[in-house]
């Protein structure tokens, strides 16, 4: 194995990914940010320098950080924010994981301002083999985009009138594919009194008569997208870094934070032909009309990378894909079977229920906030008094900071998530530090007592790290509590996360007490007001 060293400079500049110019956050002047690409077992060192005027932190989404919870990168949970002008070095060695991951800011919702990028891990153990199962690979980043800065949207969405008239769920202004998209320029120019244009579409170049592995990653802040490529079928072969036997289908939905590898055959044309890649914001396969999709072009090229400049001839803005669009809802029907078996037979040591909703939350001073939360607590981070530090010192998660559940011993445990929000308010939940098994789900809500006699799937249930729970329904996740730490469980809709929809799962608190506090920790937190409440 090797050491892979990266330098991330977080900065700010003007950018117009969808044709409308605004201030965006960048890493090394790139948007989306640089790709991290390693082999399993490599040591990763990332020196992150913050050139912004606000704090920052970077999280490595989907990496379990076994033994290195301190590198998990959530401001207020595992570290103090990196102050303006300062550098923090992340160092970890991903073991036992390979496939498609990503990294993003975990400070407020500044990932929505552009601090995102792919993190790919190759492994000789990956059952999807280059040269046998596919010839080449491409990363396809799907990503919703907003014309206002994240702090503006977050501030407005729970205030009087909401953001553009909606509470808690702003509509995206565009869907970007590999960082490029188009918006409704007429509406935008009127609203912002600012110029707007139609940028050229992003292109994915492929050679005819080959097999490609597309690494589809939803790095969006909100929208679930239904993605398809005209005339090409997807064979789904991994989900959130777990190799699976999956269906071959025309269209799949991908919730915020989820990833899939799909194999496609480029046998639908010759060099010069082009096809629409579509990413339509939606709720799920069955629900709702497809809205105007984000578009990119799959372009067939020759061996010199040449393939013409024409747009595809099929109708781009259309309510339906141009061919019979069958959509398999990969979160709803158990169509994915892990290739590496992990059964769920052992009796769980402990069952914890996490119920979450949007509503009125009483602040410590008695006033009321419209916010999201778990078990009646909305996440109010004390940024400079991170929970991990408190646990290392023998404390607990303060009950007015975040809801928490504790698994004391090493053994399997179960977390039941109740989504108490009604119908359209489905949420993509993400758990740090674990690829959980999805044991069961249902309508309404579930209790620990009722679940004890619930017949759940014991044979090789799907594992993943992000999962969509529709409104008024529940899901039961089984975790292995062999990774001591304080792990966030949260909604990956950035607007909801930054409005308090985060709880913590404490694993083996006695072991955490023995963890060392590295120099950087003391340095980052020194002299800061430990009682101040910051952006979540
Ligand atoms: Cu993608 Cu808490 O993170």
UniProtKB/TrEMBL annotation:
Keyword vocabulary terms for this entry: Cell wall, Copper, Disulfide bond, Glycoprotein, Secreted, Signal
Keyword Glycoprotein: yes
Keyword Secreted: yes
Chief location category: secreted
Occurrences of domain Plastocyanin-like (ranges): 14-123, 137-300, 413-510
Localization, UniProt: Secreted, Cell wall
Coiled coil: none
Molecular-function GO term, any one: oxidoreductase activity
Family stated for the protein in its record: Belongs to the multicopper oxidase family.
Biological function: Laccase that catalyzes the oxidation of certain aromatic compounds, including L-dopa, to quinones, which then polymerize to melanin. Able to oxidize a wide variety of aromatic diphenol and diamino groups in the ortho, meta, and para positions but not monophenolic groups such as in phenol, tyramine, or tyrosine. Plays an important role in virulence. Plays a role in dissemination to extrapulmonary sites but is not involved in pulmonary growth or in elicitation of cellular immune responses in the lung.
Protein name: Diphenol oxidase
Parent sequence residues shown: 120 to 655 of 686
């Amino acid at each position: 194995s090797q050491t892979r060293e990266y330098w991330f400079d977080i900065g700010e500049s003007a950018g117009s990914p969808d044709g409308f110019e605004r201030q965006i956050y960048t890493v090394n002047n790139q948007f989306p940010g640089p790709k991290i690409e390693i082999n399993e077992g490599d040591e990763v060192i990332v020196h992150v320098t913050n050139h912004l005027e606000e704090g920052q932190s970077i999280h490595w989404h989907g990496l379990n950080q076994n033994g290195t919870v301190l590198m998990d990168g959530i401001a207020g949970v595992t570290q103090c924010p990196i102050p303006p002008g300062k550098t923090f070095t992340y160092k970890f060695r991903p073991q036992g994981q390979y496939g498609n991951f990503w990294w993003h800011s975990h400070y407020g919702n500044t990932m929505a301002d552009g601090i995102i990028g792919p993190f790919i891990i190759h492994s000789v153990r990956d059952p999807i083999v280059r040269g046998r199962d596919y010839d080449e690979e491409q990363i396809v980043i799907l990503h919703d985009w907003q014309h206002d800065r994240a702090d503006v949207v977050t501030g407005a969405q729970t205030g009087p009138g909401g953001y553009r008239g909606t509470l808690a769920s702003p509509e995206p202004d565009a869907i970007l594919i590999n960082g490029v998209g188009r918006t409704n320029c007429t509406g935008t120019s009127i609203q912002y009194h600012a110029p707007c244009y139609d940028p050229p579409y992003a292109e994915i170049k492929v050679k005819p008569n080959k097999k490609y592995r597309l690494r589809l990653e939803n790095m969006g802040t909100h929208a679930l997208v239904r993605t398809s490529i005209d005339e090409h079928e997807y064979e789904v072969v991994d989900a959130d870094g777990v190799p699976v036997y999956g269906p071959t289908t025309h269209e799949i939905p991908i919730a915020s934070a989820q990833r899939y590898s799909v194999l496609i055959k480029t046998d639908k044309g010759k060099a010069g032909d082009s096809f629409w890649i579509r990413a339509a914001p939606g709720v799920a396969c069955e629900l709702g009309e497809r809205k105007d999709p984000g578009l990119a072009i799959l372009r067939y090229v020759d061996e010199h990378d040449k393939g013409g400049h024409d747009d595809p001839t099929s109708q781009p803005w259309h309510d339906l894909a141009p061919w019979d669009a069958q959509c398999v809802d990969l979160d709803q029907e158990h169509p994915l079977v892990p290739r590496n078996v992990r059964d769920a037979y052992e009796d769980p040591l402990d069952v914890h229920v996490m119920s979450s909703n949007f509503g009125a939350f009483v602040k410590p001073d008695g006033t009321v906030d419209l916010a999201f939360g778990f078990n009646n607590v909305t996440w109010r981070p004390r940024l400079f008094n991170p929970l991990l530090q408190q646990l290392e010192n023998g404390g607990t998660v303060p009950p007015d900071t975040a809801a928490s559940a504790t698994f004391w011993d090493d053994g399997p445990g179960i977390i039941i998530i109740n989504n108490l929000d009604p119908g359209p308010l489905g949420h993509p939940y993400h758990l740090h530090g674990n690829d959980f098994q999805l044991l069961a789900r249902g309508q309404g809500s579930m209790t620990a007592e009722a679940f004890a006699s619930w017949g759940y799937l014991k044979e090789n249930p799907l594992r993943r790290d992000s999962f969509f729970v529709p409104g008024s329904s529940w899901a039961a996740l089984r975790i292995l509590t062999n990774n001591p730490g304080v792990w966030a469980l949260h909604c990956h809709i950035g607007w909801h996360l930054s409005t308090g929809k985060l709880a913590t799962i404490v694993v083996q608190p006695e072991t955490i007490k023995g963890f060392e506090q590295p120099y950087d920790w003391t340095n980052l937190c020194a002299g800061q007001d430990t009682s101040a409440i910051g952006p979540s």
